[in-house]
Amino acid sequence: MQDTPPRASEATPELGRATLTKVGWRLLPFLLLLYVVAWLDRVNIGFAALQMNADMGFSNTVYGFGAGVFFIGYALFEVPSNLILARVGARLWITRIMITWGILSVLMMFISGPISFYVLRFLLGVAEAGFLPGIIYYLGNWYPAKDRARAVSWFMLAIPLSTVVGGPLAGFILELDGWHGLQGWQWLFLLEGIPAIVLGFVVLGYLTDSPDKAEWLEPTERRWLADRIASEQRAAHARHGVGLRAALVHPTVWLLGLILFACQTGSYGLTLWIPQIVQGLSGFSDFTVSMISALPYVAAAIGMIAIGASSDRTGERFMHIAIPCAVGGLGFIASAYFTSPLPGMIALTIAAVGDLGTRGPFWALPTRFLTGTAAAAGIALINTMASLGGFVGPSVVGRLRDLTGSFAAGLVFLAVLLLLAAAAALLLRGAHALADSPPKV
Fold this sequence. Notes:
Strand content: under 5%
Shape: globular
CATH architecture: Up-down Bundle
């Protein structure tokens, strides 16, 4: 007869390490791949614009609004989507999300003017709503608190990697311009939308909703992980007592949302405009611009892993958010005043490393005091607020460029928001809002 698997309190460190290693190899590469595909479909509009804007006659304002309106749809459906995921399970809901967003991404090849552009970008946001917070919530059910920042950093490595891979890939696809009667930007939407549909069906057979259902773990490993996560969630709930309704009005949740709003405004303000910023600095061809645009994100990928690992090693979260935010803000300020290619690219690289380096430590915070449905709702609310940054960043940068004739004012705007985010992170640290017990509401 098989021995009863040990509870978390009786487990050995070796069992814990072996279990989390298996979980890491099973989940993180696959989730990273899903997010790479998600990010490509979300931001390939930036590379498509190199041809599409001229073909469609779009101004900077029209393009900026269309790029950003995705996040209005995303924000409106973020909380309900994540609550559904918490109820039906990640496997089914992520499948639904990926298939619908893949279909809509392909349909982007048929836009014929500003209205169809706006409508399809909005619907794409609705379809993808809940994906990122759903995965964050999902990882919170698989990783103990002390290992969470590193896991999230590995998952969010997809953000810079998607640009590292997506930039050259987009450049190659754009070279298909005119092939079989389609423009290069139409091929871009078609060829980058299909993988989401295919992977959506793979999710259905590959993902496991929770550790207790993981047949790919040994019984002892399943029991250890399930007990460890459950005991942490019970302790967090007992210590902070934040329920579903309280999570939606909790001041710490809203402050975290404002911090991530600033970071996302900077991230999308850069990502969705960087091909055109680089082209303005260099005057290079579409393919060369796509290659150069990927360089800041190579550095950002390294920075994300290093900052996430440092945060887990020290157990400190707030300074690992504040310092990168400040560095990113200074990078944006510098990039606004450099007009030659090399200094400009160095400044943009510093901005990307600082901004994206916050993600691992940041997403390790909400599940320290939110559990269960409250965690699903709180994480979704934070990401909803952040998603609005995806609208504000591209729109404001585009509008300011039309008004001033350059990107400098838009880059300074992004810098100010990141510096404010750094101050807000220091405020949270000083008040010990998460390190101890957040105020009851």
